[in-house]
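Retro notes (design track)

What went well: tokenization of the new backbones is finally stable.
What didn't: we kept losing track of which sequence belonged to which structure.
Fix going forward: every design gets posted as structure first, then sequence, in one message. First example under the new rule, 518 residues:
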């Protein structure tokens, strides 16, 4: 029997509706509503993360037990579980959207593991909650595979994010209009169990401010500091200031980390922003293949590109401004909030240059490096160069004899390679000259670069292959991707998993861009 040590602080310390009623409704004055998962027809465990199981003190036997399957498919509760959905709002694509909430996420409770760490367990796709509005509370297998894989891939890349314990097929069908073109069809349903120290979002604070519920807002802030930021002394006069500053800092860190690997979240609405600076809500995300600052995987955002690769830092700041506006009524002084935002700007700048220096193998950043780096990014964009491939190849460049041929495989088009070769050669000469200014060796630089520039990224076309095969009951590709994702900086990864995006994938749905349908 699986026995978790539960400590349900969110429901014990914040007001909620314990009735368990499932129907859609507004929940003013409350932070959560109790709701049971809706049972599914024929649950089947499709995949799990042994690393996350370890965090929760679960053995492989536990994971393969009937209890586990029943509990994590939402068909029964383990002793001590208290399922609930939380209330939040958000700014979506720049506009206030009102109450949103966990429409298809149901938390099972907060577990304290043997090391004393807190992890909340949350089922995504477990049925309707009071926050489902007109939707069904379910998730399809394809989007659940993407969430499961990416949660773990981000972790192994060293990027903060929510984790995923397991992926369970429900045996029920779910109706989705994948292309938003009026052709809805049934797809297999699935549930992912997400795991994080906290699923609190900017939107949890925004909804209370929007309702003028200032006492509750204060209560939620104090609760969040006490549970999720224990290093902050809440009694100290600048406790709130430190808290907001820390949110700004971890958010800056997060977007710089996304840029490091070319990750685009795709839907950076304030309801998808974690108070701990975790990557949260894996929807139409992706990695830029050919380097393109304006690229977004989200087809819904193709016109405005609000959430494209290069917009992520300014959008993160805009989201922090919305959070600051929500916090303002209960903050002792507005300068605390302004100071936090200024800290975001400063942190972003310093983390960006540190990150770029590391990517290029520079031991320290000099002002002139801005031009060196900007000019290669501009060239990479014009010549359609694969970002991931480029940085791994750049690590192999010899300072004494830089050869363009080393970079050739990073180009998608041989014509563009030929047409830009003189420009790239000129840039490589500049780069080699820059390298002579530091005490270094080719080998040392190469191993430093390979520790920050991944060899393996979870390209959308690869995930789509895992999805296509999983739809036929074959989980082998998903398992291969999980294994590669565990060692993303290793040189030795099966060749087919590190290949640049093939031409057939450019326009195939799911292989480059995606809709929000999930
Ligand atoms: P997302 O775009 O996935 O971040 O979701 C935005 C909001 O819509 C959140 O409040 C979700 O809980 C809700 N939502 C998305 N899909 C569903 C669904 N199938 N059923 C219920 N709520 C959903
Ligand atoms: Mg969301």
């Amino acid at each position: 029997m699986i026995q978790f040590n539960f400590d349900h602080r969110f429901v014990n310390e914040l007001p909620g509706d314990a009735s368990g009623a499932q129907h859609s409704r507004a929940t003013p004055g409350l932070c959560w509503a109790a709701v049971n998962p809706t049972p599914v027809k024929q649950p089947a465990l499709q995949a799990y993360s042994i690393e996350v199981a370890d965090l929760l003190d679960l053995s492989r036997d536990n994971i393969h037990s009937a209890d586990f399957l029943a509990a994590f498919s939402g068909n029964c509760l383990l002793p001590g579980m208290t399922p609930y959905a939380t209330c939040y709002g958000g700014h979506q694509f720049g506009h206030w959207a009102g109450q949103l909430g966990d429409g298809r996420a149901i938390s099972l409770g907060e577990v304290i593991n043997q090391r004393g760490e807190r992890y909340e367990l949350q089922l995504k796709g477990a049925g309707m909650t009071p926050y489902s509005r007109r939707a069904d509370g379910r998730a399809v297998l394809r989007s659940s595979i993407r969430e499961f894989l990416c949660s773990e891939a981000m972790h192994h890349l060293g990027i903060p994010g929510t984790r995923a314990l397991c992926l369970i097929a429900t045996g029920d069908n779910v109706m989705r209009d994948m292309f938003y073109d009026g052709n809805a069809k049934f797809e297999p349903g699935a549930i992912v169990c997400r795991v994080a120290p906290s699923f609190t979002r900017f939107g949890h604070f925004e909804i209370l401010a929007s309702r003028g519920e200032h006492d509750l807002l204060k209560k939620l802030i104090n609760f969040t500091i006490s549970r999720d930021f224990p290093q902050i002394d809440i009694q100290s006069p600048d406790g709130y200031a430190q808290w907001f500053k820390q949110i700004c800092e971890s958010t800056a860190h997060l977007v710089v980390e996304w840029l490091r690997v070319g990750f685009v979240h795709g839907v950076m609405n304030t309801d998808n922003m974690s108070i701990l600076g975790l990557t949260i809500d894996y929807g139409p995300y992706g990695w830029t293949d050919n380097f393109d600052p304006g690229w977004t995987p989200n087809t819904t955002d193709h016109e405005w590109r609000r959430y494209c690769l290069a917009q992520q830092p300014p959008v993160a700041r805009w989201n922090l401004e919305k959070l600051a506006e929500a916090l303002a009524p209960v903050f002792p002084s507005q300068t605390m909030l302004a100071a936090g935002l200024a800290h975001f700007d400063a942190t972003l700048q310093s983390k960006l240059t540190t990150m770029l220096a590391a990517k290029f193998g520079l031991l320290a950043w000099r002002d002139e490096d801005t031009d060196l780096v900007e000019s290669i990014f501009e060239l990479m964009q014009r010549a359609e160069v694969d970002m991931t491939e480029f940085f791994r190849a750049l690590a192999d460049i010899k300072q004494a004899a830089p050869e363009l041929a080393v970079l050739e495989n990073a180009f998608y088009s041989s014509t563009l390679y030929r047409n830009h070769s003189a420009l790239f050669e000129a840039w490589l000469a500049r780069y080699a000259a820059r390298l002579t200014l530091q005490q270094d060796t080719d080998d040392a630089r190469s191993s430093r670069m390979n520790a920050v520039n991944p060899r393996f990224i979870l390209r959308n076309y690869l995930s789509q292959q895992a999805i296509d095969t999983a739809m036929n009951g074959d989980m082998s590709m998903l398992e291969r991707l999980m294994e590669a994702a565990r060692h993303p900086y290793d040189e030795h990864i099966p060749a087919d998993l590190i290949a640049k995006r093939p031409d057939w994938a450019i326009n195939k749905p799911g292989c480059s861009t995606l809709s929000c349908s999930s």
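Added context from the reviewer: The two ends are 33 Å apart (CA to CA).
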